[in-house]
TrEMBL record:
A GO cellular component annotation in the UniProt record: extracellular region
Organism, scientific name: Batillaria attramentaria
Keyword Metal-binding: yes
Record's protein name: Peroxidase
InterPro entries per the UniProt record, alphabetical: Haem_peroxidase_animal, Haem_peroxidase_sf, Haem_peroxidase_sf_animal, TSP1_rpt, TSP1_rpt_sf
Gene3D superfamilies membership: Haem peroxidase domain superfamily, animal type
Major localization listed first in the record, in broad terms: secreted
Residues involved in heme b binding: H363
């Protein structure tokens, strides 16, 4: 069983809606416009050279004194209430390059000849090539990029009248319906032709490609986000993934419909769900007078700050050269400093070229496989991407420990180089169904740029102040000899698609991307930062934090968060870089943590809840046992790695001793206790560690 066409379309929702916190409802109904104002022909930001075609007419009543962001990002900007919000069109920098000047995708080149099929460009210019790896970085660079991308952007695509997925290729239609529809004149479609000699997709004539939607311009308990068992994401009633076993498997539901695309992404969503709920638990103990809404909003505000800090403080300095970071005001303030460059005339909305081309650079980082590692970073399995696309059983079958194992794999595996080569897992096997039908992500990237009317590569080179390509024999910022590959698929340098040209550039300085993509990415993240009234470093105590609270947030890191919400016990301080002398493997208790007592209102309290007695261990299922304690703030369950022989010990075999006492000191909100297996613990295998983590008794500090 594999992806259905509806699931493939959902997974391929590309890049339009912007929401800083990811709590909005992005399922907007398609709205046709008499002005052909599609998702990609929106009103440009203030100061743009483009004329305003239309403005969104929604009238909002904004509370200038609000302490928290709205769910959809509206009213962040009190002068321009919709800037930076969800369900608005992406912004233009340059005039669109449509074939008819209105809305038809570009299909002809500068010399009047037809543009090469996006699939042929993928085959000839972006094959599965050397696939060199960046051994100084980790695959977490890719995963964080995808997580942030999905938080910033989403593009709904056209559907059939009944809401089902559009069929844009005759050979994908039911046999009894073939010949009844002229697919060439179906305006909602922009199919990608597949050549008869395609090396992989033999027998298929095209990929269905629905065009982007045209536009005219929370379940909560005690402040927590909803979960399922074992602190996993809740169940989605709609089948948005591949369900192998209906009796045990289900699809995850999160703030973004694409959560089930691949299981490392689902694991990252789970990490932040747990972090939110963990913050709620501790804030409730510190401030028992806060109601559910206050707990939810305060935790959400902290989560938003942490995501901004990780993105701008840990991740973006790897993507962009230090000089580019400084020139665009992207560096964070140092400790002890507080302030913001907020400018209400800066539009934080997502730009079309950023979402449709530049920020897709991360597709080149993707490896062939995703690793799962045990508690001591030993290999527990390596999965090809085609095996984990939409496959939630990868997490559910391991009693939730798959989340921990994927996180360890992400901080240990190196990513592929950012270049013009891509793994076959996304070029030939994307969202593969049970019959072997799949898609090509790179061809879709190129086609989406044409669908959105993005001007060609040279136009963006000029916009960024870079020398345009005038000859394939001498392409600036490209590896020597690359021009020959471009000349095989483009008739003129002005025909080059922005994605293909930008991704092929040599890296700029100490960053990951070339100068064109670096220019476009840096400008977008500058707008997101400076156009955000709630930017976490602001000195405004109402929209931001106190100085003491900000210092506590600065102490936190992504590695610390992974320690707090998974069973990881040691990790490098910077999870985006490989373990090294300067980034050595560190015990979790030695990583700085955030002291939430800075959020206490009124006299500070010492909170010392007591756990009840543990219940019995469950049967060993797929290497995991569970047991539960009486209700108490914090997680009521504990897990350990086991073997099936632990259920029925052999006569005379090793058995666990009784639990020892809890240690006296509270370390990062947790206490520990120990027991041994066999005589002096000597008979315990590596899979049956003698040290078991307690379930986090929380003490106020």
């Amino acid at each position: 069983m594999g992806f259905t066409k509806e699931q493939q379309n959902n997974a391929l929702q590309d890049i339009i809606v912007y929401n800083k916190q990811g709590f909005s409802n992005r399922n907007a109904p398609p709205q046709a416009s008499a002005m052909f104002s599609t998702t990609t022909t929106a009103a440009p930001p203030s100061g743009s050279d483009m004329p305003l075609s239309c403005q969104n007419s929604r009238k909002l009543q904004c509370d200038a004194g609000a302490r928290f962001r709205t769910a959809d990002g509206t009213c962040n900007n009190l002068r321009h209430n919709l800037w930076g919000s969800s369900l608005i069109p992406m912004r233009r920098i340059l005039a669109p390059a449509y074939q008819d000047g209105i809305s038809e995708p570009r299909i002809l080149g500068r010399n009047g000849g037809p543009l090469t099929s996006a699939r042929d460009i993928s085959n000839m210019l972006h094959p599965t090539g050397p696939n060199g790896q960046m051994t100084s970085l980790t695959h977490m660079v890719m995963q964080w990029g995808q997580f942030i991308d999905h938080d910033l952007t989403s593009t709904p695509v056209q559907t059939a009248h009944d809401g089902s997925a559009l069929t844009c290729c005759e050979d994908e239609a039911p046999r009894n319906a073939r010949g009844q529809i002229d697919y060439n004149n179906r305006t909602s479609c922009f199919p990608i032709p597949i050549g008869s000699r395609d090396p992989f997709f033999r027998g298929r004539t095209c990929f269905s490609f629905p065009r982007s939607v045209q536009v005219t311009n929370s379940n909560c308990q005690q402040g927590k986000l909803k979960t399922s068992s074992r602190d996993l994401l809740p169940k989605d009633q709609e089948e948005t993934c591949v369900v192998h076993n209906p009796a045990t498997d289900y699809c995850f539901k999160a703030g973004d419909i694409r959560v089930n695309e691949q299981m490392a992404l689902a694991s990252m969503h789970t990490v932040w769900l747990r972090q939110h709920n963990r913050l709620v638990e501790q804030l409730a103990l510190i401030n028992p007078h806060w109601d559910d809404e206050r707990l939810f909003q305060e935790a959400r505000k902290i989560v938003g700050a942490l995501i901004q800090q990780v993105t701008y403080g840990e991740w973006l300095p790897i993507v962009l050269d230090p000089g580019r970071m400084a020139r665009n005001d992207l560096n964070l303030l140092g400790r002890g400093r507080q302030g913001s460059l907020y400018d209400p005339e800066v539009d934080a909305s997502i730009r079309n070229v950023f979402g449709t081309a530049a920020f897709r650079f991360g597709h080149s980082l993707i490896r062939d496989t995703m690793s799962q590692l045990t508690h001591n970073y030993m290999d527990a399995g390596s999965w090809r991407l085609e095996q984990i696309f939409g496959n939630t059983s990868q997490i559910l079958s391991s009693q939730g420990l798959g989340v921990d194992m994927y996180m360890r794999g992400l901080v240990r595996d190196p990513p592929n180089m950012v270049d013009r080569f891509f793994t076959a897992e996304v070029r030939n096997h994307l969202f593969q169904d049970g019959t072997g039908n799949s898609l090509d992500l790179i061809a879709f990237n190129i086609q989406r740029g044409r669908d959105h009317g993005l001007p060609p590569y040279n136009a963006w080179r000029r916009y960024c102040g870079l020398r345009p390509v005038t000859s394939f024999n001498n392409m600036p910022d490209q590896e020597f000899g690359t021009g020959q590959a471009f000349s095989m698929v483009y008739q003129h340098p002005d025909d080059i698609d922005i994605f293909s040209g930008g991704i092929s550039e040599l890296r700029e300085g100490g960053g990951l991307v070339g100068p064109t993509f670096a220019c476009l990415i840096a400008e977008q993240f500058r707008n997101v930062k400076i156009g955000d009234r709630f930017w976490y470093e602001t000195s405004d105590r109402n929209t931001g934090f106190t100085r003491a609270q900000l210092e506590e947030i600065r102490r936190h890191s992504l590695s610390r968060i992974l320690c707090d919400v998974t069973a990881i016990t040691q990790i490098q301080p910077n999870p985006f870089r490989q373990v090294s002398i300067a980034n050595s493997l560190t015990q979790c208790q030695d990583l700085p943590e955030m002291n939430l007592m800075e959020w206490a209102e009124g006299p500070r309290r010492i909170v010392d809840p007591q756990w009840g007695m543990w219940g019995k261990w469950s049967q060993c299922q797929q290497g995991v046992q569970m047991r539960y304690s009486n209700p108490c703030p914090g997680s009521p369950e504990e897990s350990r790695v086991c073997t099936s022989t632990m259920n029925k010990p052999k006569p005379g075999g090793p058995v666990w001793s009784p639990w020892g006492s809890w240690n006296a000191m509270c370390v990062r909100g947790k206490q520990w206790r120990q027991r041994v297996c066999g005589k002096n613990g000597a008979e315990c295998s590596l899979e049956r560690s003698a040290l078991v983590q307690g379930s986090g008794r929380i003490r106020g500090k």
